[in-house]
Amino acid sequence: MRTCMIVGAGKGGQALLNILRETNMMNVIAIVDCNLDAPGIHTAREAGIAVYSDWNVVLTRFEIDVIIEATGNESVFEEIRDKREKHTVLIPGSVANIVLNLIEEKEILIDTLQHQSKQQEIILDSTHDGMIAINVDEEVTLFNRSAEKITGIRKSQARGKLIGSLMASSMLPRVLSSGQPEVNQEQLLPNGRKIITTRIPMFDEEGKRIGALAVFKDMTAIEEMAQEVTNLKSIQSMLEAIIQSSDEAISVVDGDGKGLMINPAYTRLTGLERDEVIGKPATTDISEGESMHMRVLRTRKPVRGAQMKVGPSKREVVVNVSPVIVDGRLKGSVGVIHDISELHSLNNQLQRARQIIRTLEAKYSFEDIIGNSEEMTFSIQQAKLAASTPATVLLRGESGTGKELFAHAIHNASDRKYNKFVRVNCAAISESLFESELFGYEEGAFSGAKQGGKRGLFEEANGGSIFLDEIGEISLTTQVKLLRVLQEREIVRVGGSKPISINVRVIAATNAKLEKRIMDGSFREDLYYRLNRLPIQIAPLKQRKEDIAALANHLITKINQDYGRNVEGITPAAAEYLKEYDWPGNVREFENVLGRIVIHMDSSESMIDLHHIPSLLSEQKDAEILSVERTPEKTLSQLVDEFEKKTISQTLELYDGNKTATARALGVSLRNLYYKMEKHGIEKSSMQ
């Protein structure tokens, strides 16, 4: 066998090496390439063929019969030609390139044919109909997956076998012989299944018979489809019965907006009978407003809570309409109509339920407290420690710093989280009712008392936590009773004498200087020490300005949900500018300002920037808020009154007239705020 050396181990050289190895025409004893990482070098090493970086070495060591130059470099070819032995055959690199191209074309053609064959096989296997084909020798050439399932014969067993040996009852040989198709024929298979089959002969382009094909369906599947149709009719009848018996007024239209179905509740609500609606346009029943059926058919999107007037009596209703889409096609729409008076009643019930839930449940956790500053981190650590103990907690900090948020989080992190969380604003309840609200009362305790008496908020919170906000505002009389609760863990109802044991965790909060109140005699020292067992100081926003950016992003997410906006965040420049303001109203004021910014932003804007921030944050505004018109003719008392009136008015405006928030921001009780407003005539002036 001739010896061969290949010079060049690229793709061409590798392809030639593979061909010579497969055909065994020549003995390749060496492959040469200056790049020892070339593809052909690796192939040669795996085959045990010597590799070299210099072909001169091979010529001196071995007797070479054939040299194949596969580098494509003309100078290499000429150098080898000059140095080879006369009997050595030299094949140029152009031949190698031709061979490589032929091989690549062959591989592409093979891949294409295999891909097409695979696609055809996937398509045939995907159909629900069984398919069997035979050639002129009655050998099975096609046996798809559905045929495998229906006949119980494996595809691997069927291919290449005579159809008669697989299925003696097959009529494909008859069709092959006669050349005539047989359509929708019944046939009983060897496994006992009955099928409906169509058999056709197959011809080539010249009309020569080349085989026969059978396409068949299991009768069981057809019977199941018939049963499904029956079931669908039954379901339709049931749905119609449900719609007709429903107390909700229901209207159904088809894809063209023509009335398809109504129920008796619809007639009772609108006053329209079936013949006035069925087959008529969807606008027939509308007295005032747009047809929601037509909007839904146009947009393919549901509509919720649309108000309109329907029927001859112009009944005020709210409608919910949804599209009916089957297999991606719009078939119509369904509307449910509610009487507005019923909705008002339900809304009142919902508000009452929300009030109860707001009173009895804690909504926030430590994850809702935003801040990585040292001050806030320390406060959170203290609060988490407090949550793990049953001790009384006193939350201290300026108004708007988030004391209530901490109270929620402490309750939700404690072992009482599945019990009630009752919130009490001590400044919002009048002094005459405060004691009875807190401790309850017995029947006949005072005129107007409920029969059987009433449980107080401490009893409501039994087993859970009670949050006493603005604890510094309670009267001395109530302080005595609260001290007894903390000491003895029992309460006595107003008008009662029997003590009632309770198990309540007290979380108190104040923005007042209790130590100063103790000094002036308005707060009991012994109660202070009972409350101050686990004090937590919450830093104002001006002391943790590094939290402003994160806090802004958190509040923007909440504001987006409240107002249906899609603001993504705040620019670094705007965040830095906001840090320059001291935020006397703390987080509450910060949220208020962000809310106003988002409301006034254009819907196309996604980031809060410097130009969005109102003038409230400028030094000029700060100076204006603190400015008082000073004239030599005015006394100090008059100047103080003017400053007080101006400050209260501006703070009320800042908090959109919310007096409780204003009182907290100014550090006064709600009663004191009302007194000052009446003194300065602020309420009257704002009404003019």
Fold blueprint:
Blueprint: E1 3-7, H1 11-23, E2 27-32, H2 39-47, E3 50-52, H3 55-61, E4 66-69, H4 74-83, E5 89-91, H5 93-126, E6 130-135, E7 140-143, H6 145-151, H7 155-158, H8 163-166, H9 172-178, E8 182-188, E9 194-203, E10 209-218, H10 219-245, E11 249-254, E12 259-262, H11 264-270, E13 286-288, H12 292-299, E14 303-310, E15 315-326, E16 329-339, H13 340-360, H14 374-387, E17 393-396, H15 403-412, E18 421-425, H16 431-439, E19 440-441, E20 454-455, H17 457-460, E21 465-469, H18 476-488, E22 490-491, E23 500-501, E24 505-510, H19 514-520, H20 525-531, E25 534-537, H21 548-563, E26 569-570, H22 572-578, H23 586-600, E27 607-608, H24 619-626, H25 636-654, H26 659-666, H27 670-680, H28 682-687
Parallel strand pairs: 1-2, 1-4, 2-3, 4-5, 17-24, 17-25, 18-21, 21-24, 26-27
Antiparallel strand pairs: 6-7, 6-10, 8-9, 9-10, 11-12, 11-16, 13-14, 14-15, 15-16, 19-20, 22-23
Keywords: ATP-binding, Nucleotide-binding, Transcription, Transcription regulation
Domain Sigma-54 factor interaction: 369-599
InterPro entries: AAA+_ATPase (IPR003593), AAA_lid_NorR (IPR058031), Homeodomain-like_sf (IPR009057), HTH_Fis (IPR002197), NAD(P)-bd_dom_sf (IPR036291), P-loop_NTPase (IPR027417), PAS (IPR000014), PAS-like_dom_sf (IPR035965)
